[in-house]
Amino acid sequence: MTGRGADGISPADAAVAGGQVTGEVLTGDTLAGAAREAPGEHDASRADTRTKDNRAWFLVLPVVVSVAFTAVIPLMTVVNFSVQDIFSPTDRIFVGLDWFRDVARDPEVRAAFLRTLLFSAQVLLLEIPLGVALAVSMPRRGPWASAALVVVALPLLIPWNVVGTIWQIFARGDIGLGGWAVNTIPGVDFNYTLDSTDAWITVLLMDVWHWTPLVALLAYAGLRSIPDPYFQAAQIDGASGWATFRHIQLPRLRGVLTIAILLRFMDSFMIYTEPFVVTGGGPGNATSFLSILLSKIAVGQFDLGPAGAFSLLYFLIVQIVSYVFFTVLTRTGR
Amino acid sequence: MLEWMVWTPPTAAVFAGLALLLAGMAVWARLSPPVARRGFLRIETDRGDRLYIGLISAAAVLTGWIAVTDLSMWLALACALLVALVIGIWG
Amino acid sequence: MARAAGPPAAATGRRPPAVAATARRQLPWARTVFWLYAATLMLPLLWMFGMSIRPNEDILGGFSLIPQRVTFDNYQTFFTDSVWYSSYLNSIVYTSMNAVMSLVVALPAAYAFSRFRFAGDKHLFFWLLTNRMAPPAVFLLPFFQIYQSVGLFDTHLGVAVAHMLFNVPLAVWILEGFMSGIPREIDETAAIDGYSLPRFFIRIFLPMIRSAIGVTAFFCFMFSWVELLIARTITSVNAKPIAATMTRTVSAAGVDWGLLAAAGVLTIIPGAVVIWFVRNYIAKGFALGRV
């Protein structure tokens, strides 16, 4: 993680390095044990030595004010929307929790919720192993290391709507290389604008194309932080490539992979731009995720009440996941 | 100016209550600084953390209730408060 | 400072000593698999570029791997049609404003979070995170209302302020990550030397973390550049972003694929230009400074 506690050489590292110095040959068991018992890297338990000073509030005041204007006031307004039937600012009726009941029981909303969950699950299942595999096979030194980094990172820096555009073109059967190849070589009739399975696959593939690099870069950063004595010890043991990966690299990736999983979950859970550009939520409702449905209700139909209730329920889920994320980031090791 | 915020008395009361709660927590923290400890949630929490977890869990209870049953929301509110209380004391 | 300026090896505290290449032996075939993947990764991109240099009749006329006729008409259209180039400029204007505003607000706050303990600091830090994580769709309706009522609707400033919603928390988190890597002894030494806090911050601290500031500015710029939903909702004509223009290319004659592809290529350029300089920080930026 950050400078917080990441600097110290953990006791386990020191033990391995020490074993190296004294020429003691580590057995496979002790080696794996050392790798498993290396909690030091993501340990936030270092005593908090920051000065206690409440005047620091003056430094954070601008942030509080700006975020209050862009987040708190809108959120209060959403709460107000959610309990009223609004025809105009002066002509409105208090309806209590009716909108919440409507939205929570709306089959379309429930379907979108399940669809979004399924999408997030598939994204994680595909991207995490692929990203780790990619990071392990990336060249780590030499002139090619930087080139590989740039190539892998490129999709991340492409604007999301352009990612949509790229795949909109690429996956088309008539003008796109991808769609054309699928239609011609195996002879499958692939058309993402008409077939809902094809649309789903296109959006999923697009997300894998777009975001696997993030998992790869995070895992790559994790791999680079593994001290060399680990590898030397593995070499002395005559460990195979796979054993080195399984017992040395993978355990040390736990911290970065937790971050990767949470980030990918959050981002895929609120995905909007890419599927909107490619499929617009269609065909039918096949790729209508929560954000797409919500913005349809909010901006398309301008239903203030249901959109407000929907927003709050959505926001509640985000709060819960963010809290898990935050707890993992700041408290692991305690 | 503030007309577009379409305030109603109940939501205003809820936000005023939240503001009071925060102010109360701040005063309490001044009187006796919070101590972090570990309860049945298995993570180290101080009183502010437990308040937050409690409120979020209460909201989750209310949401689940409204999505599933037609029973009175007052009953749901009682359950939610109970959950928040349990987390606040033993969490 | 080396911590902030160096590559990831330095960011984790120490540089690995030179060891025999075999010590970091990789799984067999790793390189081949990797470069195959990289090639696959580039295919859709190259395909879009190929589309952008073909005339529309060729695109729709029949499938061909290699462009039959190469033309730059699509790019010419982009730069002569005011709807296109002005929305491109709009995007640049509000993203730049947003990056500057977010940084100015976030720098002191990040310093406070990394150096001081104060009442509610943890909770404030978490609250910032929830705003970064919140789906923009949640804020759509009130934004529409607020910006109309305060007269910021369809202005560059309006979009820049709206994007502070997620960029200020992002900037605070990233900068805090970098700043926590700088030893506190520097602050103490400067205080003993008689530097006041503002003077120390501007004269010593900011120059020390300038690469971190550059990286943060880049990420603010990027997240604002790629955001579509909010920017589209609170603009109509004068501040319309390029992303919104790109989603409305369907005309009576169908989609203008060549022009759309050309716009896509041009929109990638800001990211492609700086990618070499930020390559070691991309993971850190996306992970909110936590890697």
TrEMBL record, chain A:
One of its GO terms (biological process) is transmembrane transport. It is found in: Cell membrane; Membrane. Gene3D superfamilies: MetI-like. CDD domains: TM_PBP2. The chain crosses the membrane at residues 56-79, 112-136, 148-170, 199-223, 255-273, 309-329. One of its GO terms (cellular component) is plasma membrane. It is a multi-pass membrane protein. Its main location: membrane. Keywords: Membrane, Transmembrane, Transmembrane helix, Transport. Residues 113-325 form the ABC transmembrane type-1 domain. It comes from the Bacteria. PROSITE patterns: ABC_TM1. InterPro entries: MetI-like, MetI-like_sf, Sugar_ABC_transporter. Belongs to the binding-protein-dependent transport system permease family. This is Glycerol transport system permease protein. It comes from Planomonospora venezuelensis. The lineage of its organism: Bacteria, Bacillati, Actinomycetota, Actinomycetes, Streptosporangiales.
From TrEMBL, chain B:
The chain crosses the membrane at residues 12-31, 51-68, 74-90. It comes from the Bacteria. Keywords: Membrane, Transmembrane, Transmembrane helix. This is Putative small integral membrane protein.
